[in-house]
Amino acid sequence: MKSNHLHKLQHPPKSANATNFKPISLNLIHFNLLLLSIDLRIDYTMPSTIPASTNLTIAAHLQPYQVPPANYFDIDGSNKIPISRLVASAVVIRSKRVLLLQRAAHSFQPLLWELPGGRCESRDDSVIASAVRELWEESGLVANNVVDVVGKYEWLDHGEVWKKITFLMDVEHDDQGNGLPRVSIDPKEQKSFIWATEEDVIANQCDGIFLSWTSDEQKQTVLGAFELL
After folding, report:
1. What is the CATH code of the structural domain delimited by 57-228?
2. What contacts 24+ positions apart, CB below 8 Å, involve 27-35?
3. Which letter, b or e, does each residue of 132-159 get, where b requires 16 or more Cβ atoms within 10 Å of its Cβ?
4. What digits encode the pLDDT tens for the residues 194-223?
5. How many whole angstroms separate alpha carbon 214 and alpha carbon 51?
């Protein structure tokens, strides 16, 4: 018959060396495991707000992207093309290396490589603000200069038009001693990150790691960023 109460561990057989043994309560074990799980959950913490950059600058020609995501339309001749889902991402290149993130194993498109980025949200002041926020949330890097648009591409998903816009950005530099900024990824979103050269991107391999991309367009966007330098 099942009991509603936790049982205690029984005493071991008495021996000459067994003295002052006290039974361990399963309640205590459960409590200690709970504390351990709490410690594991708070191992990664990312502040909910982006640290304000003291000198964020945005190139003047990027004014069309300084509108709320809901107000963004692509202009094709005289027609406005409605976008169902808008995605913004950021390219960060330092010491001739680009930051790439590997998606988590449990996520959509698991273990594939891409740039920091994600969906634009209604809380974002502009499309550029979306890219700045996503860069911070996925890498811990704070943008201080939005230089240019690197690439734009669309795709259809269940009849909806998705569009991804990628911006070349400079970031505040927390030097690790190797000329590269310090990156902090969210293990719930990314498995790993690397700083890859243009040659690595072309070869789909960096430091012995094979780079399998979320799309060919993503790879071409990265290569296009190197051409802007």
Report:
1. 3.90.79.10
2. 30/6
3. bbbbbbbbbbbbbebbebbbebeeeeee
4. 999 999 999 999 999 999 999 999 999 999
5. 29
- CB 46 within 8 Å of CB 140: yes
Question: Which of 158, 181, 68 lies closest to 121 in space, CA to CA?
Answer: 68
| H or E segment to which residue 20 belongs | none
Q: Work out the mean pLDDT of the chain and round it to a whole number.
A: 80
Any idea where the domains of the chain sit in the sequence? 57-228
- Asked if 120 and 87 count as a contact pair (C-beta separation under 8 A), the reply is yes
pTM of this structure: 0.76
User: SS3 of 139, please?
Assistant: helix
DSSP string across 77-121? TTEEE--SEEEEEEEEEETTEEEEEEE-TTSSSTT-EE-SEEE--
Structural contact between residues 146 and 128, judged by C-beta atoms closer than 8 angstroms: yes
How far apart CA 13 and CA 29 sit, in angstroms, is 22
SS3 label, residue 8: strand
